Amino acid sequence: MAKVKIIVATTKKYRMPDDGMYMPVQVGAEKAKILIPEYEKDNSSEDNISAKNSQYCELTGLYWAWKNVDADFIGLVHYRRYFGSKHQGVSSDPFEKVIKQDELDEILKKSCVVVPTKRKYYIETLHSHYSHTHYEEQLVKTKSIIERKYPEYLESYEKAMSQTSGYMFNMMIMRRDILNKYCRWLFDILDELEKELIDNKLDAYQGRYIGRVGELIFNVWLDHQMATGEILRYQVQELPCIHMERINWFKKGAAFLRAKLFHKKYDHSF
């Protein structure tokens, strides 16, 4: 049986799955006013980016896991979002629908990457949706960094950004060797983006752009791996994304229309 550890990124105490493969990690611990004693901290080793959580979001947890967790497979989820079982019951408790290790073990016998079901935007591409709700210059700069440092990924960048769906939420489970490759690529690009694009006028919500760009370019990285045969398509398994809290789709839709039609950028999560 493979050793699996899934990091649950959180900034506060929250109900957690009782399955032992889940590891709650308090992200942004370096600057947190209150520490949660029973959770791991993303600054518990010398090599960490915990202080950058306001920009990198849950990716400070992924960085910590990459550097510190000893497991055959390592994953990242969010305290409000989990991978769901393929065999969901009728329970109204969303935690009853979260995948457990016995089911995941069977999936990992054939798969080396697990991703959430693609999120569909229908009338928007990944690029246009981001540009309407956030700031296009962040993607322009990211593309230039990829073109300069990883030009072999440029075709996958163009392909991913022109699609109307993608793997979102910075959620994944990967075999350790694949995670190593992904994180080296990801954090190299994001570190460069952080250095080259400094905007002190962004509010706290829009200031999380590093994490959001990371969310998008995961699609670029994965497409390139499959295009080159590094990862075969049958080795990538999609699972449902389970939300622990109800989403107000009316407010979310209204905010999107304001962004698209009147250039009103998002100022909070939904």
Overall 3D shape = globular
Unreliable parts: none
In DSSP terms (H or I, runs of 4 or more residues), the helix count works out at: 9
CATH T-level fold name: Spore Coat Polysaccharide Biosynthesis Protein SpsA, Chain A
Share of β-strand residues:
15-25%
The computed structural class is alpha/beta
Mean pLDDT: 93
Fold topology:
Layout: E1 4-10, E2 22-26, E3 40-41, H1 53-56, H2 59-68, E4 73-78, E5 81-83, H3 101-108, E6 113-116, E7 119-120, H4 126-133, H5 136-149, H6 154-161, E8 165-166, E9 172-175, H7 176-196, H8 209-227, E10 236-239, E11 241-243, H9 249-262
Parallel strand pairs: 1-2, 1-4, 2-3, 6-10
Antiparallel strand pairs: 4-9, 5-11, 6-9, 7-8
Helix pairs in contact: 5-7, 6-8, 7-8
Mind explaining what this structure looks like?
It is a single chain. The radius of gyration is 18 Å and the shape is globular. The chain is of the alpha/beta class. The protein contains 9 helices and 11 strands. The protein is 39% helix and 16% strand. The N and C termini lie far apart (38 Å). The chain has one domain: Spore Coat Polysaccharide Biosynthesis Protein SpsA, Chain A (Alpha-Beta Complex).
For the structure shown, list the relevant keywords:
seven-stranded mixed sheet, Spore Coat Polysaccharide Biosynthesis Protein SpsA, Chain A, 270 residues, two-stranded antiparallel sheet, alpha/beta, single chain, globular
Précis, in short:
With 270 residues, the chain is of the alpha/beta class. The protein is 39% helix and 16% strand. It contains nine helices and eleven strands.
